[in-house]
Amino acid sequence: MSNFSYISGLGYHVPERVYTNSDLEKFVDTTDEWIVSRTGIKQRHVVENETCLDLTFEATQKALKNAGMEADELTHILVATFTADTVIPSAACLLMEKLGLSNRIPMDISAACSGFVYALEVARALICLNPDSKILVCGCEILTSRVNWEDRSTCVLFGDGAGAVILTAENVKNSGKIIDVLLSSDGESETLNVRGGGSAYPYKLGDPIGEDHFIQMQGRSIYRKAVRSMSSISLEILAKHGFTTQDVDVFIPHQANMRIIEAVGKKLEIPSEKVFSNVERFGNTSAASIPIALAEAKEVGVIKKGDLVLLATFGGGLTWGSTLIQF
């Protein structure tokens, strides 16, 4: 039985509607210069009439086409998200139905911005158990549904979107071998959270929506912990397999903001030309961040045959992780 899983298809989808920093200036006490200097973000995609299901479906169609597969070949559907359309059914169940499937294994994975990498590890384990599995792994968020548009410290950061990959045990042409995934967490809940609507923070009929319904974040603390955690787990996964950062051809960190991306790259001593970033165009899309960036980097030719690709992520929980892929 092979211990490796292979990415045989990638795809991503974002809403057409775009909010530029200039658009935000019209209703938030901020400026383009303030946002760019602190985050590197110039615009973000925002849903208008789309749902999480719409975004995952479009990303899935692109990943299936890229893999040369049909939807009915899928055995499992994993969706990493904390902004699903409904509490029940899960985002994965809704996607299964829209794909015209039944009797598959759909499940949602909740690890905030680290959700996609966590879902990759679940998919790898499922493939080890059953090498015939063909697993769809999506990361999707509609973060603008959980953003307080009066809080300039958070609302400027986030956007909506979805990314998808197909994992199999088969090493096909142009596939990417997942060498390993490492995950970690510390269970620290004060730094980043969304409490409102949870069973410990329920709303009763007629209650007004409070600030706890929206993303609450301690930015400075997140910056320090994200840089430290992503750097350390990246070095750990490289050392485990006999690599150094000099062996990395493309580094794709979670697209939180440019300051974090640059700080992690510098700490790892990876040249900026090897660090892929699209945060200026998409903002922070949480669980969708890594698969969107991975799919785009492959699509535009940044990732080439033979490249060693390092992924690193950090999110609420607190959770973090790293992945090594050989294309």
Query: What's the helix count?
Result: 10
Assess the beta-strand content as a share of residues.
Answer: 15-25%
Uncertain stretches of 5 or more adjacent residues: none
Distance between the termini: 21 Å
Cα shape = globular
Question: What is the C-alpha radius of gyration, as a whole number of Å?
Answer: 19 Å
Query: How confident is the prediction overall: mean pLDDT?
Result: 96
Q: Specify the biggest β-sheet.
A: 9 strands, mixed
Helix content: 25-40%
User: What is the structural class?
Assistant: alpha+beta
What order do the strands of the largest sheet run in, or round the barrel if closed? 5-4-6-7-1-8-13-12-11
Number of strands: 13
Secondary-structure element order, as H and E? Answer: EEHHEHEHEHEHEEEEHEHHHEE
Task: Describe the structure in your own words.
- The chain has 327 residues and is α+β, with helices and mostly antiparallel strands.
- The protein is 32% helix and 23% strand.
- It has ten helices and 13 strands.
- It has helices spanning 21-25, 32-39, 52-67, 91-98, 115-129, 152-155, 219-240, 258-268, 279-282, 289-299, and strands at 5-13, 18-20, 43-45, 76-80, 105-109, 135-142, 160-168, 176-185, 192-193, 216-217, 250-253, 308-315, 319-326.
- The strands form three sheets. The chain has a nine-stranded mixed beta sheet, with helices on both faces. Strands 2-3 form a two-stranded antiparallel sheet. Strands 9-10 form a two-stranded antiparallel sheet.
- Helix 3 (52-67) packs across helix 4 and helix 7 runs parallel beside helix 8 (258-268).
- The longest helix is centred in the C-terminal third of the chain and has 22 residues, at 219-240.
- The protein is globular.
- The protein starts with a strand and ends with a strand.
- The model has no long low-confidence stretch (mean pLDDT 96).
